Amino acid sequence: MKISNLKIGTRLGLAFCLVTLFAIISSCVAWTALNTVADKWSEFSSISMEKREFATTGVIKLSDAIHNFKNYLIRGGGYDKKFAADLASLDVVVAGYLKTGSVSNREKSLLDEILKGTETYRVAMRKVVAMKSSEIAIQEIDQSIAGADKAIGKALGELMQIAREDTATVGKSFDDTVNSGKQLTTGLAAIMAILSAVCAWLATLSITRPVQRAMKIAQTVASGNLSGRIEVSSTDETGQLLLALKDMNSSLQNIITRVRTGIDTISSASSQIAAGNLDLSSRTEQQASSLEETASSMAELTSTVKQNADNAGQANQLALTASEVASKGGALVLQVVDTMGSINASAHKISDIISVIDGIAFQTNILALNAAVEAARAGEQGRGFAVVATEVRNLAQRSATAAKEIKTLISDSVDKVDAGSKLVEQAGATMEEIVASIKRVTDIMSEITAASQEQSTGIALVNQAINQMDQVTQQNAALVEEAAAAAGALQDQAGNLAQVVNVFHLDGEPVGQGRLRLSVRRPLLRT
After folding, report:
1. In angstroms, how far is CA 432 from the centroid of its own chain?
2. Are 297 and 391 in contact (CB under 8 A)?
C-alpha cells in the first residue's frame, strides 16, 4: 500500500508514531548501553576485588606463617601448628583465586609457584623441627632454610600487581564504555532527530504538494484554460480533491464543447431560417399567383370531367352490347365444336369400314390365287376357270388399291378434322376469354363512370379548398415576416453567447485558437 493513499489524519498519526518510536528506540538503546556498562563494571569490579582480597589474604597468611616460623625458632611450642594452618590458608587462597573463573596463564603460573613455595616451606618447617630436636644452633637453622618464603612472597607480590593492573584496566574499560555509550546515545539522538525531521518533512510535503497542485489547477480553470492534464496518484483527501477537480474539468470541457456546438448549430440554423424566410416569402407570392391559375384550370377541368362522365356512360352501353354479341358468338362456337366432334367420329367409322373392305379384297386375292393354282392343275378343263380366277384376282387387286387410296384420303381428312377440332376448341376458349374481357371492360367502364361522378364532386371541393389556401397563403406571408425578425434576433443572441464561451480554452486546442467561429450557410433557392 502506498503512503500517499493513506488519509491525512492517518499519515500525521503515523509520522508522530514514528517519531515516538524513534525516541523509544533511542531510549532503549541508551538504557541497554548503560546496563551493559553497569554489568561489565559489576563483573570486572567483583572479580578484581575478589582477586585483590585473595592476594591480600595470601600476603597476610604468608606474613603470619613467617612470624609463626620465627616464633617457633625462638620459642618453640605450638607455633609449628599455627605455621601449618597459615600454609593451609595459602592453599585455600590459591584454590579461591582459581575459582574466580577469570585467571590468565601468568596468574596460573604464579599460583603454581605459590603452591610449590608452600610445599617447600612445609619441607623447610619439618627440617627446622628436626634440627631443633637435635639442638642445632638457631643461626645455623635459620641459615639452612633462608629464602624459603621468598618465592611465595614474590608470587603474591606479582598477584597484587596484577590485581592493581586489572583494576586500572577495568577503570579504563569502564571509561571507554561510558564514552562509547555517550557517543552512541549522541549519534542515536542525532539520527532520530534527522529521521523525525525527514518524517515531518515528508508528511508536510505529501500534504502541501497536492494542495498546491489543486490551487494551480483551480487558478488555471478560473482563467478559462481547461486543457491542463490532471494526474491523480493517491486516494487520500488531496487525491480525492484532485479527482474532483479532474471530474469538474472534464465536465466543464464537455459542457463548453456542447455549448459551442449548440451555438454553431443555432447560428447556422438562424441564418438558414432567415434565408429560408426570404425564400419562403417569394415562394408564397408565387403560390398565390399559382393558386389563381389553378382555380381557372379547375373550372376547365370540371367541364372536361363532366364530358368524360358522359362518354364513359356511352362506352358502358357499347360494352354491354359487345358483351351480348360475344356471348352469342361463344354459343355458336360451342355448337361448331360439337359438330366437328361428330364429323371426327364419322370419319373414324369410315376409316374402320375401309379397313374391312381392304381385308376382304386381300382375302379375295388369296382365293383367286388358289383358284388359279387349282385351274392350272386341271389343265385344259380348268382353263376357263383360270381366266375367271385371273379376272377376279385383278378386280380384287383394284379393289384393294382403291380401298388403300380411300383409306389414305380418309386418314388425311381425319387428321384435318382433328386439327379443325383443336382450332375450334381454341376458338371457343378465345371466345370465352373475349366474353370475360368484355365483361371486365364493362365493369371497368361502370367504375369509370362512378369515378367520374366522384371526381366532379371532388373537384368542387378542391375549388373550395383552393380558395381557403389563398387566404392561408396571405396569412403565411405575414408570419414569414415575423419569423425573419425572430431569426435575426436569435442570431444576435448566438453571437453574444459565442463571445462568452470563447473565454475557455479546451484540451487539444492551440493557445489563442480556442475561439468559436460562427458559420453562416446560405440555403439554395429552389425555383
Report:
1. 75
2. no
| CATH class assigned to 240-501 | mainly alpha
Region of residue 25 (left: phi > 0; alpha: psi -120 to 50; beta: else): alpha
Residue with cell 429552389: 526
Determine if the pTM surpasses 0.85: no
C-alpha to C-alpha distances, 426 to 144, 153, 422, nearest whole angstrom = 187, 172, 6
Residue 382 to residue 154: CA distance in whole angstroms: 209
394-412: pLDDT as tens digits: 888 888 898 888 889 878 8
What is the SS3 assignment for 517?
coil
Which residue, among 13, 22, 30, 24, has the nearest Cα to 191 in the 3D structure?
22
Domain extents in the chain: 3-212, 240-501
C-alpha cell at 377: 392343275
pLDDT tens readout for residues 300-332 = 877 786 787 688 778 778 877 877 877 787 787
Q: What is the CA radius of gyration of the chain?
A: 78
Instruction: Tally the residues of the chain.
Output: 527
**Which of 32, 146, 40, 152 shows the shortest CA–CA distance to 89?**
152
The pLDDT score that the predictor gives to residue 447 is 85
